[in-house]
């Protein structure tokens, strides 16, 4: 069966989902050029899509390790770079050939919060392929607007032994950036990489003002007197 058309269709579908499902994607820092192992926390459905979006924007080939369970459910994702854990050596060769390899060292989606215990696959791949190991913090959050926003912060390349502390540190830094920022604005230093179709706070504000004026609740003139009943003036 000729499946050449499926991969472009999947890419278009995923990119459309990112733009329709998120109000925007903001990024601070970036991975090195060429091959690298990206090691993000994994606390949302969107994490793999976000790595793919950034890779496609950069024209960078990408592989993302997925659990065998997830690939059994979505086997077609292998056509756009998803790989099972049993292909570590193949992923190492791809990293050495210049691919970004996304490995979620927590192993599976975890509840949003502190970093969970890490598995060794990401560090092993980086060592074997002799490419940088880059911790990446990801948060998908609802703030002032009605739609979720995605924020990614790339750390500096680190040693395998340093990954737990470095990934925890960059995640804490991202959380601190978000907690200290005006919720209607991105944190300082984050660049908009994807403009989503979700309503932005300024659009919501305009809609509220329009509805307020249209309904009359925002008028400043004196309120009209109460109507006079047919049988006489109303008592206060």
Structure description:
With about 240 residues, the chain is α/β, with parallel strands linked by helices. The chain has one domain (about 25-200). About 35% of the residues lie in helices and about 15% in strands. The protein has seven helices and eight strands; from the N terminus they run αββαβαβαβαββαβα. It has helices at about 5-20, 45-60, 70-75, 90-95, 120-130, 165-180, 200-215, and strands at about 25-30, 35-40, 60-65, 80-85, 100, 135-140, 150-155, 190-195. Strands 4-3-5-2-6-7-1-8 form an eight-stranded mixed sheet, sandwiched between helices. A hairpin with a 5-residue loop joins strand 6 and strand 7 (about 150-155). Helix 4 (about 90-95) crosses helix 5 (about 120-130). It is globular and about 60 Å long. Residues about 220-225 and about 230-235 have low confidence and may be disordered.
Radius of gyration: 24 Å
> How much helix, percentage-wise, in residues?
25-40%
What count of structural domains?
Answer: 1
Q: Helix segment count?
A: 7
Largest sheet: 8 strands, mixed
Strand content: 15-25%
Distance between the termini: 83 Å
């Amino acid at each position: 069966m000729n499946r050449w058309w499926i991969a472009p269709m999947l890419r278009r579908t995923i990119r459309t989902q990112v733009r329709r499902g998120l109000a925007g994607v903001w990024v601070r820092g970036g991975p090195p050029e060429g091959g690298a192992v990206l090691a993000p926390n994994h606390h949302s459905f969107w994490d793999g899509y976000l790595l793919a979006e950034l890779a496609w924007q950069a024209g960078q080939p990408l592989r993302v390790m997925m659990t065998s369970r997830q690939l059994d459910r979505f086997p077609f994702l292998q056509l756009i770079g998803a790989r099972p854990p049993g292909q570590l050596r193949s992923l190492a060769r791809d990293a050495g050939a210049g691919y970004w390899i996304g490995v979620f060292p927590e192993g599976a989606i975890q509840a949003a919060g502190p970093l969970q215990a890490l598995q060794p696959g990401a560090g092993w791949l980086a060592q074997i392929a002799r490419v940088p190991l880059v911790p990446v913090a990801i948060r998908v959050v609802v703030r002032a607007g009605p739609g979720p926003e995605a924020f990614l912060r790339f750390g500096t390349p680190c040693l395998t032994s340093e990954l737990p502390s470095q990934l925890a540190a960059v995640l804490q830094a991202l959380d601190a950036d978000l907690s200290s920022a005006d919720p209607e604005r991105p944190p300082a230093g984050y660049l908009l990489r994807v403009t989503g179709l979700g309503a932005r706070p300024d659009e919501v504000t305009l809609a509220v003002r329009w509805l307020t004026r249209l309904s009359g609740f925002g008028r400043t003139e004196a309120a009209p007197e109460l109507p006079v009943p047919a049988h006489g003036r109303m008592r206060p």
